[in-house]
Design a protein that fits this description.
With 243 residues, this protein is mostly helical. It is built from eight helices and two strands, in the order H-H-H-H-H-H-H-H-E-E. The protein folds into two domains: 3-158, no CATH class; 166-240, Orthogonal Bundle (Arc Repressor Mutant, subunit A). Strand 1 and strand 2 (232-234) form a beta hairpin. Helix 4 packs parallel to helix 6 (142-158).
């Protein structure tokens, strides 16, 4: 094996181990998202950040060896696997950095920083974990959801007002709207629901409060209309009705 191939092989293995450590953990309970023991990241956010930065530095500078022949058939070229891994490593890096910032701000709060300063620091530190080109379905990256909860919980802990970035709220509301539109396709009459209906939050593994917040945007924007005391439907439901 050429030295360059060996170095690249170690870099890829290190990246895979990092992804396993921070997204799966050592057991099924730490991996399964609905388990009470589910976690993202290891106990050492600083180590997660350093490992992610090292992996990204190694993978991003890799160059394809056109003379390399795999000893077993691959469905895609090696460079494709590297390309697929990089955005996930960026998400891991962002989340680890956020965990570190949260601890710094929490310490400043305990040391007596003003509410105005804490609010500013949280707003500055909250750099939302991006989706990049990863396939995410309707849930979004787990790191993004965990990060949002982490910053909102920090705001409550420090008794300062923290708001999810507006573009994220509208993105979520649009996904919520698509779910309602798809559900309407099964009915020839208006599909109605309540403001705390499971379809508004459980479909995304959100809390009821988050589901209602996104729903309120749709209501304010006229995408949803009220039909009863706590009954709603799509304003343009006929465009999505079952024929």
């Amino acid at each position: 094996m050429r030295r360059s191939q060996k170095v690249y092989g170690v870099a890829i293995l290190d990246a895979i181990k990092l992804i396993q450590d921070v997204r799966s953990g050592p057991t099924w309970e730490t991996y399964w998202v609905w388990s009470k023991d589910h976690r993202l990241g290891t106990a050492d956010a600083g180590s997660d950040l350093r490992r992610a930065e090292q992996s990204l530095a190694s993978l991003e500078k890799m160059k394809t060896d056109t003379s390399y022949v795999s000893k077993f058939p691959l469905p895609f070229p090696p460079s494709t696997f590297v390309e697929l891994m990089i955005p996930h490593l960026r998400q891991i890096r962002q989340f680890a950095a956020s965990r570190i910032e949260v601890e710094k701000i929490r310490k400043l709060g305990k040391d007596g920083a003003s509410k105005e300063e804490l609010t500013r620091l949280i707003k500055t530190a909250w750099e939302p974990v991006r989706e990049y080109n990863t396939w995410i379905g309707m849930f979004g990256p787990l790191e993004a959801a965990k990060q949002e909860k982490m910053f909102l919980d920090l705001g409550k802990e420090l008794n300062v007002e923290v708001q999810t970035p507006g573009w994220m709220r509208w993105r979520d509301a649009n996904r919520q709207l698509q779910v309602l539109q798809n559900r309407q396709r099964y009915f020839s009459q208006p599909f109605t629901f309540n403001s705390d209906a499971a379809i508004l939050w459980r479909s995304f593994n959100w809390t009821k409060e988050k589901g209602y917040d996104r729903f309120s945007l749709l209501l304010e924007n006229g995408c949803i209309e009220k039909k009863g005391a706590d009954t709603y439907q799509l304003s343009n439901w006929m465009e999505y009705r079952k024929n």
